[in-house]
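At this stage, I wrote out one protein's amino acid sequence and its backbone structure tokens, and that material follows here:
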Amino acid sequence: MPSFILETMRKRVVFLFTALFFGISFVLSQELPDGIIGAFKKGNAQELNRYFCDKVDVIINDNPVNMEREKAYEKMAAFFSTNKVSGFNVNHKGNRGESSFVIGTLITSTGSYRVNCFLKKDKSKYYIHQIRIDKVNE
């Protein structure tokens, strides 16, 4: 077989594997629901509630409470009411197996907060099982 044909085939195989790698990476990074990030950006507890597990650990400024979904919604609504949100920046997000997370900075009228949101997969969807919100010392 002529060398130019082998070289062309080699280039195609390298291109195919590169495209496959980036495609898989893109799909895996998309598993975190965009609605969660959007809810934090708007300070929308009702939208966030759509992604809560039946029981949620809500930790605000080192005050942990494990509560039912409805109580978690009320707690987040009260937090957003007291701290008017003007933005949310994603610092890191990822997933591994049946769990996923997002870490970001919530910008509010009372200052910035670090948000850690942990999710677990149930069937084909991810649900929030823990939210940790800590004031950032500026």
About this structure: Helices lie at 3-29, 34-42, 45-49, 69-82. The beta strands are 52-60, 63-68, 85-96, 99-108, 111-122, 125-135.
